[in-house]
Amino acid sequence: MVIPSGVVVLTDRRLAARPLVEVVAAAVRGGAAWVILREKDLGYAERRALAESLRAVVPAGRLVVAGPDPLGGDAVHLSATDPVPPGVRLIGRSCHGVPQLSTEDYVTLSPVYRTTTKPGYGPALGPDRAAALAGGVPWLALGGVQSAHRAAACAAAGATGIAVLGAVMRAADPERVVRTLTRAFAEAAIGVTGLTQDDGPGRDLAGGGTGGAGITPGGVVPADGRTSAATGARA
To answer: Which portions of the sequence form the region Disordered (predicted)?
Structure first.
């Protein structure tokens, strides 16, 4: 089972500095290999049409739809209370504490840092606490991961990836933001950067950031090619 990894972009067209499909396309060019479509306020027909537009710019099979309806695809990301739908290939779930899973493949844990997208939402877990809550479940760090330093800290704590919303949606140059976060996460994941896991200084990338060569992440496949029962994930 291939699960979301690296920089995973969550959509919010109301925050986007440019038309949403343009922002997502730029993020993909910067190295985002996965996108989670939110936009739950849209009607069904409009949301499904948006899903199809996004599938045209996102790598095949890498658009995940928030909610139990995959909108013509086969990957969903569920809230804490959404039912698990039948017949989908990939299932994620949003968690804020110890995951209680049945068939899910991965979780997001949030907020890892305080976030401007949801002010007052917290308290912030921090990367180490999030990792402890996840246990053996593959997890994405969500909330306030808006600098290279924080991206690296989440990788060092064992996150499979970072889920980013505001830093990409608001960015004047989403491609550069994602490239910077992708590089920082990938380097820390292989022990190159040596950054610590505290919330040290780090530049907020939403209004710009440092460049860097893109490293496009793929998915994570367990060593035996299957997810284990211990993680609560599916084979």
So the answer is: 196-235
